[in-house]
Amino acid sequence: SRSTRTASATTSSTPTSAATVVTRTQFADLRSTVLAQGARGAEVKVLQRALGGVAVDGVYGSSTVKAVRAFQEAQGLRVTGIADEKLWIDLERQTYPFLRYRTQVLKPGSTGQAVREVQRALGLEADGVYGTSTKDAVKSLQGRHHLTRTGYVGGVTWQALEREVRGQR
User: Quick one: 79 exposed, middle or buried, by C-beta within 10 A (0-12, 13-18, 19+)?
Assistant: First the structure.
């Protein structure tokens, strides 16, 4: 089961009143799973979707081995063609680059690495200071994703930013 946090500080019996922020991914349960050529099943499909460029058929065949090897080489991992804990962790980081920030709220006046990450993703100068241009770019992102245009970055906006970054690859 996925653990979730609500993005709202208030509670309500209406399920649509608070957005759900996912802080755990499908990769978390797979970290201890080792897959190699010949494996079959749902775990292989998760791997194939994350790697991209291969058929998502649930069969760990030669094209999946090739894709795993290419990913391992690109990430500086030992090239084995086998999906192991290190591979799952790197796939999670690539697929969800802002996962570690999803419980942080950024707003004008915020500073630091999380602000630089937002700025880079939005194509801004990454000075690490949440100013007017960052707020305006965040509002624009929120509008593109049909979110309330607050200019603040919380869990749901982090998730929207990830969707946008993945779409640019």
Answer: middle
Tokens of 91: 């796939």
Of 96, 94, 91, nearest to 158 (Cα)? 96
Residue type, 3: S
Token digits for 153? 């970055």
Q: Of 94, 111, 146, at which residue does a domain stop?
A: 94
Contact 155, 96 (CB under 8 A): no
Which residue among 79, 94, 109 closes a domain? 94
Mean pLDDT of 90-112: 92
Q: Which residues contact 46 (CB under 8 A, 6 or more apart)?
A: 26, 27, 30
Domain that holds residue 118: 4-13+98-168
pTM: 0.71
What's CA 145's distance to the chain center, in Å?
16
- Once rounded to an integer, what is the mean pLDDT over residues 146-160? 95
Averaged pLDDT, 108-132? 96
Q: 142 is written with which tokens? A: 């929120």
- Are 111 and 152 within one domain? yes
